Amino acid sequence: MRERQELDEAVTAIKKLEQDLEDAATLIELGEMEGDQASITEGENAIKAVEKEAASRQVETLLSGEADGFDTYLEVHAGAGGTESQDWANMLQRMYARWAERRKFKVEIVEMTDGEEAGIKGATLLIKGHNAYGWLKTESGVHRLVRISPYDSNARRHTSFASVWVYPVIDDRIEIEIKESDCRIDTYRSSGAGGQHVNTTDSAVRITHNPTGIVVACQQERSQHKNRATAWNMLRARLYEAELKKREEKANAEAASKTDIGWGHQIRSYVLQPYQLVKDLRTGTQSTDPDEVLDGDLDPFMEASLAQRVFGGGEEVADID
């Protein structure tokens, strides 16, 4: 049923594009016949809107990977730098939540650890929607922020780092075998809002997979049993994502070198002062409106990264600051 719905939406969208294009052409033709410049302009604007929508649909055809259609987990972790980096991690978490909301995706907070003074040390979001993992998979990596710190009384310029990790939610058809003896399970008290119950019971669960060093945590539910089940699902998803990455590296070593995920590998720079610029260091895609980007306008960056991953081309763009 889900596949049928997705196909139905795709066919409907193409038919709408064809109809919108025909309507715009007719409007321009009538405007030219009657000398009505307003109608001509309206028709031209309509064609530009169709062109933009068609380009977006074309990018969606790039999302044909094994897990691209799945829902996704997205983790954000603050780097070194205390309050400044924790505030930046919180800004990133909000940016991705706003991006998802713009696409009518559903966003759930699975786990969040507050910072000491402001921001967050880390958070895990569950984003549900068609091709959620496919769209977000190129966002894994290190994101850098340059700004005048609101937490510095001397108003000095600070550089902060936060890492993003994206991995798909896998369904029951995919079997991932995990030996419980390979894992360490810790329980602890949840933090944040939730009333007295949250702060008095060890309902949060953390699972460490010893062979790989992968750590997942969940404090979404009041029940330890439910959090434990969610954490196991997250661990299965992380191990599945790691296997997908191995396959990609084996299939295309050159592409893998461009998409390697590591703390020292910056993928995007967000400069708020002394000038305003968001720049993707892999594709060279830029925006001079950081506020709009931080409010979820990420599609141009994602589309460029997806196209580069599929078609290749171009070396990493040097960071100029």
Automatic annotation (TrEMBL):
Record bears the keyword Protein biosynthesis: yes
Cellular location(s): Cytoplasm
Entry-linked SUPFAM superfamilies: Release factor
Chief location category: cytoplasm
One cellular component (GO) term of this entry: cytoplasm
Post-translational events: Methylated by PrmC. Methylation increases the termination efficiency of RF2.
Domain Prokaryotic-type class I peptide chain release factors: 189-205
Keywords on record: Cytoplasm, Methylation, Protein biosynthesis
GO molecular function: translation release factor activity, codon specific
Post-translational modification N5-methylglutamine, affected residues: Q196
NCBIfam families: prfB
Role noted for this protein: Peptide chain release factor 2 directs the termination of translation in response to the peptide chain termination codons UGA and UAA.
Family statement drawn from the similarity comment of this UniProt entry: Belongs to the prokaryotic/mitochondrial release factor family.
Protein name per Swiss-Prot or TrEMBL: Peptide chain release factor 2
Species of provenance: Methylorubrum populi
Taxonomic path: Bacteria, Pseudomonadati, Pseudomonadota, Alphaproteobacteria, Hyphomicrobiales
